Amino acid sequence: MLKESLNNRNGFSLVELLIAITVLAFVIVSVLMMTTVFINRNAFANDLTKALELAEEGIEITRRVSYTALPGERNDLQDFVDLTENFTINDRPLYAGYTREFRVDFGIDISTITVTVFWQKGGVMSSPVVLSTRRVFE
To answer: By CB distance 3.0 to 4.6 Å, which of 69, 73, 123, 132 could disulfide with 114?
Structure first.
């Protein structure tokens, strides 16, 4: 009986082995592709979060400015924002590659302040993150 079980040569055929290897290869490739997609999406979410932080900070900068504290005309607010911009992004390596732009539209009694942030990664420009607020003249 022992001799019969040792002589039994019923193993996997070559076709079965090739099918098993093919299925295993598809599973491994699929997992690697999903991992790559997750890493890219995570990096994009990180970039988007940084852009939103910069846009929110830009809105806060303009909220701290008092129109009465600025000499001259209302255009001085834009000059102040331009000066402030040089000290907020350019000196921080965490935000390298990001650009923040301010736009102040003055109305009769209210101004609209728009902060736009975009970034460049791998030579490709991102879609902008735009935040706006309105401010009543003091």
So the answer is: 132
